[in-house]
Design a protein that fits this description.
Blueprint lengths: L1 H7 L2 H6 L10 H12 L5 E7 L2 E11 L2 E8 L8 H12 L5 E6 L3 H9 L3 E7 L9 E7 L1
Antiparallel strand pairs: 1-2, 2-3, 4-6, 5-6
Length: 143
């Protein structure tokens, strides 16, 4: 939980994926949210490990668009193909289709992960969760 909290509260990472609506400066709220997800049968959440170390998390859950997938990877693991590998594995665990994902237009690496795993764009809208005026929230789907 310490590694997960540290990863999710990293300010640089938060600007890449602001969709997870928790104030990560508050450890108690973080732990309450993690406990609620652990007790929700519709949530499938897994740690991403590399070399015996925690490098991220990936989950599927029932969201506003339908079944959604979400991942977060620690900065030390960026650019190593680990997110693409984890996404492919998750899609083999949770066979629900269609499955949706959100990504910011200013996060081309995350977009590439999803496209490499067979997702395609459905729509774009202004990303209200970010301070950057040119950010768009891209909704993707894998059928």
């Amino acid at each position: 939980m310490d590694a997960m909290f540290g990863m999710l509260s990293d300010p640089d990472s938060r600007t890449m994926a602001p969709f997870f609506a928790i104030d990560f400066a508050d450890r108690a709220e973080f732990e309450d949210k993690m406990a609620a997800m652990a007790n929700d049968d519709t949530v499938k959440m897994y740690s991403m490990m590399a070399g015996g170390h925690f490098v991220g998390a990936i989950m599927t859950f029932d969201g506003p668009a339908g079944r959604e997938v979400f991942y977060w990877i620690r900065r030390i693991a960026w650019g190593r193909g680990l997110a693409t590998e984890a996404m492919a594995r998750m899609l083999n665990i949770d066979h629900t289709r269609p499955v949706y994902a959100h990504v910011l237009s200013t996060n081309p690496r995350a977009l590439a992960v999803l496209e490499n795993c067979g997702f395609h764009e459905v729509s774009r809208r202004d990303a209200i969760e970010t301070p950057a005026p040119d950010d768009e929230d891209i909704l993707l789907v894998k059928d």
